[in-house]
Write a structure and sequence with these properties.
This protein has 329 residues and is an alpha/beta fold. It has two domains: 7-52 and 239-328, no CATH class; 58-234, Rossmann fold (3-Layer(aba) Sandwich), CATH 3.40.50. 51% of the residues lie in helices and 9% in strands. It contains 15 helices and five strands. The chain has helices at 7-14, 26-31, 34-49, 57-72, 93-111, 132-143, 153-166, 185-200, 220-227, 242-253, 264-267, 269-276, 280-297, 304-308, 314-320; strands spanning 82-87, 121-125, 171-175, 204-210, 230-234. The chain has a five-stranded parallel sheet. α3 packs antiparallel against α13 (280-297), α4 (57-72) crosses α5 and α6 (132-143) runs parallel beside α7. The model is unreliable at 322-329 (pLDDT under 50). The structure holds adenosine-5'-diphosphate and magnesium ion. Residues 51, 53-54, 56, 59, 89-95, 280-281, 284 line the site of adenosine-5'-diphosphate. Adenosine-5'-diphosphate (ADP) is lined by residues 51, 53-54, 56, 59, 89-95, 280-281, 284.
């Protein structure tokens, strides 16, 4: 996995992935020599191992709202507004905010070509049981600033604010926000540190975390300040609708299998929905897993049974199977 929470990893992730191998016709594939076939299969497996991000409604909504806020905040000297993307685990929050970051950074690069001294986007995650110092250190780590055992909080914070200001950081993404609990003293200090950063760094702040709207992060005096300035984007498992079917069809298009009949997977959309509980991550895992099996076994197609052969994560398994609606809790 790439470490998005370092500048190097973040920049690497922005570079477009290598293009997938050109699909061969069945005849061409059969005619390949042993070594050539191995290379071609390896390229297909590598392609399947990479996540192909789909522009789902959550992604599009987050990118649109985020871009709008960046523009609205451009001349604000105080009380900049932000976004909170909140919902159950595995509903695409991280993908949505990192896609917003990607679009912001690519736009920035296009506007300021050849300026390597810009850091338009900062991405940090809140560590479990975080202290204020730990969150400040996360910012420093992303920026590649040294944090020594002896550096005090004020030094770290001033260095981070200085670098972000100098490098024109316009967007700060803070993920795993649910790791803050305002009922502990440490949690309250972390929230205060984030608030301080958001006042000092002239950027739009985007938060993501599990069920933030039901947590104590938005209540009380501290919470009310956030609640008053942040727009909430809720995420949830997909209902079994046209978008879900489109998602399945989009995933099918990326498979590169030789005996797979296009349209088979959209035909299984309802089954796939019940099987995965409408979780996009579980769908992607099941479909790509079955495609990898299809290449390795030489079957070259995906069926209901080959999907069932891929074990899913615990959440998808428990929310999926019996056709309950509890998945949307
Ligand atoms: N837009 C998308 N396109 C393709 N796959 C996605 C998309 N959003 C989510 N996924 C899949 O779902 C998984 C979980 O998404 P993630 O953003 O990490 O969820 P969360 O942050 O809400 O826990 C990802 O690893 C990926 O496989
Ligand atoms: Mg996440």
């Amino acid at each position: 996995m790439r470490h998005l929470s370092t500048l190097e990893g973040w920049r690497q992730a922005l570079d477009s992935p290598p293009s997938p191998p050109t699909p061969l016709a069945v005849g061409e594939y059969r005619a390949l020599g042993h070594a050539e076939r191995e290379d071609y299969d390896e390229a297909r497996l590598d392609h399947l191992a990479r996540l192909q991000v789909v522009a789902t409604s959550i992604v599009r909504h987050t990118v649109t709202c985020g871009r709008r806020l960046v523009l609205l905040n451009r001349h604000a000297i105080s009380a900049r507004r932000g976004l909170i993307v909140s919902g159950p685990a595995g509903t695409g929050k991280t993908i949505a905010i990192t896609q917003l970051g990607r679009s912001h950074e690519l736009l920035d690069r296009a506007r300021h070509p050849g300026q390597a001294n810009r850091i338009p986007v900062v991405y940090v995650t809140v560590p479990p049981a975080a202290t204020a110092r730990m969150i400040a250190a996360e910012f420093a780590r992303f920026l590649g600033l040294p944090v020594r055992g002896r550096s005090n909080m004020t030094d770290i914070i001033e260095a981070v604010v200085g670098v972000c200001t100098d490098t024109r950081t316009g967007l700060v993404l803070v993920d795993e926000l649910h790791n803050i609990s305002l009922t502990t003293r440490h949690g309250a200090e972390v929230a205060d540190t984030l608030k301080y950063f958001s006042e000092r760094i002239p950027a739009t702040f985007i938060y993501a975390g599990i069920d933030i709207e039901h947590s104590n992060l938005l209540s009380g005096t501290r919470g009310a300040q956030i609640a008053g300035r942040f727009t909430l984007i809720p995420t949830r498992p997909f209902p079994c609708n046209d978008e879900w079917k489109g998602l399945v069809a989009t995933m099918e298009e990326t498979l590169l299998l030789h005996d797979h009949q296009p349209g088979t997977l959209p035909g299984l959309a309802q089954f796939l929905h019940a099987h995965t509980g409408g979780m996009i991550g579980a769908l992607s895992h099941a479909v790509r897993g079955a495609a990898i099996d299809a290449i390795l076994t030489g079957n070259e197609k995906i069926t209901k049974n080959s999907i069932l052969a891929i074990p899913l994560d615990h959440t998808a398994q428990t929310t999926g199977r019996p056709k309950t609606r509890t998945a949307t809790k």
